[in-house]
Design brief:
Layout: E1 2-3, H1 48-57, E2 67-69, H2 71-77, E3 81-85, H3 95-104, H4 108-113, E4 115-118, H5 122-134, E5 138-142, H6 148-156, E6 160-163, H7 168-182, E7 185-186, H8 193-209, E8 215-219, H9 224-236, E9 241-247, H10 253-259, H11 282-291, E10 294-298, H12 300-312, H13 324-331, E11 340-344, H14 351-364, E12 368-376, H15 381-391, E13 395-402, E14 412-420, H16 424-436, E15 440-441
Parallel strand pairs: 3-11, 4-5, 4-7, 5-6, 8-9, 8-11, 9-10
Antiparallel strand pairs: 1-10, 2-3, 12-14, 12-15, 13-14
Helix pairs in contact: 1-8, 3-5, 3-8, 5-6, 8-9, 9-11, 12-13, 12-14
């Protein structure tokens, strides 16, 4: 994890200087109608006035999404935890906010030339719907491997979709070239003041819905959402701690913050495509470096476990990137002071990925057990094994036989089992039960 240093970074106005006080030293909570004039440096490309203007622009367009309490996470943290359900926003993510504000601010001449965007899915849908609502032609570049439901939804919202590039950064380069050739206006997913201001409206909603909030946890890709929330929240409540979260396999902010400038990653690997960004944006990076108190990373196991928790306990469908805030809280609940708001940034998940992720999450939670064991190759042997598992209350998901391995005796067969269990303790009990029954457990 990376914490914001106490001293300003070179070239970043006010970085780290304004919010070094701990919660017990912080100013008393204020309402969104009483900004603290010295709380956020005015040199930033985005101000709270920009966010307020964006909020007016979005009236009747973006939903004020629900803030739901989480009993399970509250028990972990020891103080109230709320989920900001931006997965229930129009288009399924927060991206509509920034995209609409950016396109609405274009001149008639710019609108006539059309808009261009690049995205793995969420920004694509946000731009497509925003452009359609404003009567603007849109062309969206998406990676070749983008989930089919996201591609289909983007087209359904009215955009022309071009599949190009293996990752979003390659699609973005293609979009930039296309915009230069055609005169279309590039709607960047995070690196523009209007986009950051639009995303910041989510921060104003959090203050209105949970005025007693002490910590906000939010996923970070390019940084637009975290930056917007930070500008909006810190201006009114500098005592609120803002924590960004990245996937371990696509964490560009920790090395960038350490270097004091955006640094591009050589490679990325994560299921959380919504925050799979290889380089922070220049506009959000300056704000994140100054106002976001900490950037943490989470594992793939944590992401899948968080997605499973959202589905089972909160009854909410959330994509891996959208569950990153919950993953951070689950990984280290003692590190967060409540009342806490975890932002569920999106719910656009490919059904096939959801299936794999849920299976991974169940395995990470100790609710799947894979075993290979040997038994005599005789009639009734498998039935006897399954009987033992039934008595032990294990649900058999899959069984496969191996008879041709050289390591097996002539009268032996190896069986691979995939079991659904009640948790880690049940896994240990099952292995012990099988060994006690005389079975040779290979793994």
């Amino acid at each position: 994890m990376v914490t914001r240093p106490d001293e300003p970074r070179t070239g970043t106005p006010g970085a780290g200087a304004a919010y070094s006080a701990g919660p017990e030293e912080a100013a008393a909570p204020t309402t969104p109608s009483t900004p603290l004039d010295d709380a956020v440096p005015s040199a930033f490309a985005v101000t709270v006035d920009d966010v307020r203007a964006a909020q007016k622009t979005l009236e009747g367009v973006a939903r004020t999404t629900a803030l739901e309490g989480s009993r399970y996470l509250t028990g972990l943290v020891g103080s109230p935890v709320h989920l900001k359900c931006e997965n229930l926003q129009r288009t399924g993510s927060f991206k509509l906010r920034g995209a609409y504000v950016r396109i609405a601010g274009l001149s008639p001449e710019d609108r006539a030339r059309g808009v261009v965007a690049a995205s793995a899915g969420n920004h694509a849908q946000g731009v497509a719907l925003a452009a359609a609502l404003l009567g603007v032609r849109s062309t969206v570049f998406m990676p070749v491997g983008a989930p089919l439901p996201k591609v289909a939804a983007t087209r359904d919202y009215g955009a022309q979709v071009v599949l190009q590039g293996q990752v979003v950064d390659e699609s973005l380069r293609a979009a930039e070239e296309y915009a230069a050739e055609t005169g279309g206006v590039l709607i960047h997913p995070f690196d523009h003041p209007d986009v950051v201001a639009g995303q910041g409206t989510l921060g104003l909603e959090i203050l209105e819905q949970c005025p007693e909030v002490r910590t906000i946890v939010v996923g970070v890709g390019g940084g637009g959402l975290a930056a917007g929330i930070a500008v909006a929240v810190k201006r009114f409540r500098p005592d609120v701690r803002i924590v960004g979260v990245q996937a371990e396999g696509a964490a560009a902010y920790p090395p960038s913050l350490a270097a004091g400038r955006p640094v591009a990653l050589d490679a990325m690997s994560t299921m959380a495509d919504g925050i799979k960004v290889g380089r922070p944006g220049d506009v959000p990076f300056e704000i994140v470096g100054a106002l976001v108190d900490e950037v943490r990373t989470v594992s793939e196991d944590a992401l899948s476990s968080a997605l499973l928790l959202c589905l089972e306990r909160a009854k909410l469908v959330v994509e891996p990137a959208g569950a990153s805030s919950v993953a951070a809280v689950m990984t280290d609940p003692g590190a967060f002071e409540g009342p806490l708001v975890a932002v569920l940034s999106g719910g656009n998940v490919d059904p096939l990925l959801l299936q794999r992720t849920l299976r991974h999450g169940m395995a990470a939670a100790g609710r799947y057990l894979s075993l290979r064991l040997r038994l005599s190759d005789r009639p009734g042997a498998l039935a006897a094994l399954l009987g033992e598992l039934s008595v032990a209350d294990a649900n058999v998901l899959d069984v496969s036989h191996v008879r041709t391995e050289p390591r097996l005796g002539l009268d032996e067969v190896e069986v691979e089992l995939h079991l659904e269990t009640k948790g880690p303790e049940h896994c240990v009990e099952l292995s012990a039960t099988l060994r006690a029954a005389g079975y040779t457990v290979v793994s």
